[in-house]
Every structure is written in structure tokens, then in C-alpha cells.
Amino acid sequence: MSRLHVVTGKGGTGKTTVAAALALALAEEGQRTLLVEVEGRQGIAQLFETEALPYEERKIAVSHGGGEVYALAIDPEKALLDYLQMFYKLGSAGRALKKLGAIDFATTIAPGLRDVLLTGKACEAVRRKDKRDRRVYDAVVMDAPPTGRITRFLGVNEEVADLAKVGPVHNQAQAVMRVLKSPETAVHLVTLLEEMPVQETVDGVAELRGAGLPVGSVIVNMVRPHLLDQDLVAAADGRREEISEALAQAGLAQGGALVRPLLDQAHAHAERVALERAQRSELEKLGLPVHELGLLADGVELAGLYQLSAELRDQWPHKEAA
């Protein structure tokens, strides 16, 4: 059963929105999820219409089933201070390093270190237990970097473990990789039914599998309804006079002049439907569960976010959300 859900996708596919909807969907009655942001964009705060997230876990929503969604924006500098305190007991010495600029220097010149801290913090939330030895969070959802960077981002701890052969750094990196490569983790890829996002999804799945990282599902976002296919449009082409008469009967005096523009739009729609079917076929070849979320006509507002979470909840395997 997956407990860490890593959500990635090509830029513009709405991965942050999908991650937020998934966190809501997984928060069943009496359950608690943590939504983690690692890119510092405060996209989660904007979606939930709340103030910027601090470096602390804060409740930001309640699901339709009464579960709770907490959120955390991970700050690499503060995560490094936590790390120094946890493994080296530096305490005030670590804070002194921050004042000297050493912490910012370390996280800036060593992006690999930054990724270690970000993934480590998320995995710590997955493993954390309360005083009664119960999991603090039933699920953790990470709004992760884009598809092109996700394999390197998740695999950086393996590189660190190879570099640091012994000691707390080595042990921590190995512990994180044990979570990331276990059935506890699932990497979900968000895409649109367009050629470039689908191709990047296909490539991303191949890279993740090659690195031994567990791929969960493909989530197709912003799906538009299909109204006409090419056969119907072709039939309409041969019935222009009937269409013109129908428009006139509907009270449109210039109905005849509207026939050509209407058919042009119908042809464009039918072509899009055909292209989307071809992209669906490419996604089906991956052998992964595919979930679809409809396009929100009014944009992504809080009500729309709950709508998307309901769509995901209806499609998600129950054992995944348990």
C-alpha cells in the first residue's frame, strides 16, 4: 500500500493542482494527509486560498469525508538546520552557521544536497509515529519537480549513500532510498492529451523504471468532453441544406451563412478528438492505471479543487487510499 505519493508532470499540466486534489481525495473520514511542496512557489497556499505556508505543518483543509489535510512548504535552509541538529547535535552552532551564510551557501552550490534535504523531510513524515506508535499521517503527497528532473531528484540519495560510505549521512540516505524504492511509494505522472506532455510522460516512466523507482499511475488532466467524431462531421458535410433550414427554423435569418463556420468548428473538434484518442493509446501502452480529470470551465478555484478530488476519489483504488 502506497503512503508516499509523488506527483510530477511536465510544466503546464497542472501537477500542483492534481497533487492538492489527491491529498483531499486520500483524506478519508478520520484520516490525515500531508501535502508537501518542495519548489518554493507557494502554489499550494494559492490553491487553498490561504496565506503563505511557513516551514511547519499546518492544517489547511477538511475533506468531504471529514479527513484533514495538512501542508508543508519545505525550506532547504531550515531543513539543513534540522538535519545538523538531528545527526550532529549542533544546535546553536548550526544557527551560527546560518548567520554566517554557510547554510545558504551550502544549499545553493550543492543542488544535490538540497534535494537530499527535501526528499529526506518528506520521507521522515511518512515514517513518523506518535507517542502511541501510530502513524501521524495516513498518506503524504509531494508536489514534486517536473518530469524531466524527477528521476534525478528522487535518486540523489543513492548517489550520496555511495559517496559517504559510513556515518549518519550514509545511513540517512539509505533510509530515504528504502522508502522511495519500496511499495510505500508511488510516483504519479500528470499529463495532458497532447503530444509533447504524453511523450515526456512516456520517457519519464521509462527513466523511473530504469532507476528502480515505483511508478504508480498516469493522471490525465484538463480532459474536454467529446461531442462529435469524424464520422458525424462527414455526415453533416453532406447535409448542409438541412442544417441551413434548421438554423432558419430556429430563428436565425442568416442561418445559411453560419453553416460553413459551424462545420469548420466541427471539423476542428473532430480532429482534436482523433488526436486525443491517439495519445490515449500511447498512454495505455505503459500498462499503468490511467485516471482522468475534467477541464474546469471556471478555472481552478477552491470549489473546483474539491470537485477534482471527488473525481479522483471515485477512480482511485480503495486499497490505495486505505
TrEMBL record:
Pfam families listed in its UniProt record: ArsA_ATPase (PF02374)
Domain ArsA/GET3 Anion-transporting ATPase-like span(s) in chain numbering: 5-178
Example of a GO MF term: ATP binding
SUPFAM superfamilies: P-loop containing nucleoside triphosphate hydrolases
The protein, known as: AAA family ATPase
Top-level taxonomy: Bacteria, Bacillati, Actinomycetota, Actinomycetes, Kitasatosporales
